Amino acid sequence: MSLLENCIIVSIIIILILFFIFFPLSEGNFNTSTYTNFISRIKKSTEFDDKETSEIINDLSNCVKDERIIKIFSTTQKPVEWNNYKKKIIKKKIINKGSKIYKEKKEFLLNLEKEYGIPKEILISILGIESRYGKSKGNFNTLNSLYTLSFYNFRRTTFFTEELYAFLILCKKRDMERKKITGSYVGALGCSKFMPSNYVKYAIDLDLFNNLEDCCIAICRFFNDKKWDCTTSILVKKDKGLCFKFEDIQVSEHLNDILKQENKEDMCGTINLDCILQYNYSTKYAMAVYFLGEHIRNYS
């Protein structure tokens, strides 16, 4: 290889390095190819007629990047200690409100528990954590959130484009105005904070924005699909032989740490704890659901 050829190769490498330094392929840059492919998918979809397709494309063209979401995803979050996390979740007013709903809807919850085997206090606990029983459903424009996460967030592009597509289907099937729907910054919807794909799969016939009973039904359907075992609890004594083997070693480590802090070292998580983790993949969240549920049941 000649000296000239070596110089050309070195120059190209330097240019590429400088390009990725000043224009990194990360959160904040628009992914044109992903957007083009998504628009093509909408055009080919049998879910939407020509008029609907045109309106969707127009709505997407008017979406803007939400810098708040980009900042959240690009900022490294410091781990929250269990005791601090618990204090934010398990508060007296949340317990009292949950206990009130538990009593008011006791007959409905009992019937639901008979049908699905999901403890009623767990359903109420999840609604308390997710949205303060419908009081805090999120104020991020969902179409804009999913647009931002689909085309500006390169780490989970596939996941969020699927959620955006599901959201568009959901809005059509439930006759919702897609430009006016709000939720969490990741696109989770309603009092139970279902992602659009789960809303379509488990609750297309339900109102998760305004009806807590519908939310309880949807959560039961979700857990039932994830193989909830109605013959056991979420935590059991280790000697019962029902300990679930979590594939993620960090889950086991975090769980053991929490159980130690709660003086429950003789306990372990069952398949039902894994079901809650599939609802929200956080060991702290799953354990908060359990402990808040215990408080709600004891105060009811």
From TrEMBL:
<protein>
    <submittedName>
        <fullName>Transglycosylase SLT domain</fullName>
    </submittedName>
</protein>
<dbReference type="InterPro" id="IPR031304">
    <property type="entry name" value="SLT_2"/>
</dbReference>
<dbReference type="GO" id="GO:0008933">
    <property type="term" value="F:peptidoglycan lytic transglycosylase activity"/>
</dbReference>
<keyword id="KW-1133">Transmembrane helix</keyword>
<feature type="transmembrane region" description="Helical">
    <location>
        <begin position="7"/>
        <end position="25"/>
    </location>
</feature>
<feature type="domain" description="Transglycosylase SLT">
    <location>
        <begin position="43"/>
        <end position="293"/>
    </location>
</feature>
<keyword id="KW-0812">Transmembrane</keyword>
<dbReference type="InterPro" id="IPR043426">
    <property type="entry name" value="MltB-like"/>
</dbReference>
<dbReference type="GO" id="GO:0009253">
    <property type="term" value="P:peptidoglycan catabolic process"/>
</dbReference>
<keyword id="KW-0472">Membrane</keyword>
<dbReference type="InterPro" id="IPR023346">
    <property type="entry name" value="Lysozyme-like_dom_sf"/>
</dbReference>
<dbReference type="Pfam" id="PF13406">
    <property type="entry name" value="SLT_2"/>
</dbReference>
